Amino acid sequence: MLPYQKLIGSLMYIAVLTRPDIVFSVNFLSQFNNCYTKEHWAYAKRFLASGNNQLEAFVDVDWASNVIDRRSYTGYFFRLLNCAISWETKKQVTVALSSTEAEYMGISECCQEAVYLRNLLFELNGVTYPIPIYFNDNQLAHKLSANPVHHKRSKHIDVR
């Protein structure tokens, strides 16, 4: 006898609290609580082993888009097991003089959160690994992040 009803109950709990993206599927599978088959069991088990277990970061910046104060907007989110676990969108505190500076400040904000989440995951499972950051669309900011050599044109952002 398969513990199908217990699995569906656990998935429903997860869906309501943290995973709204699986609500429809779990609701559909719950219709077969009394007449499930091995096929239903296989579909329900797919929720248990889905996703990438590496923390991934995504960051992007909209440079000087606010016409009133010319400050840029930064947005980032972190994904673990294909679920967004942390995110933020906010206006940058200073005016960026270039798109490179705006992107670099956004990457800096994202990295601060990445360090916090990496330390939290280390506390939970004792494993630490690098966190890839995706969707940085400024090549100069990417190169500056990879090799923080400061030049005459980038010395105003050396503290970040």
From TrEMBL:
PANTHER family linked: GAG-POL-RELATED RETROTRANSPOSON (PTHR11439), PEPTIDE SYNTHASE GLIP-LIKE, PUTATIVE (AFU_ORTHOLOGUE AFUA_3G12920)-RELATED (PTHR11439:SF483)
Stated name of the protein: Uncharacterized protein
Organism: Pieris macdunnoughi
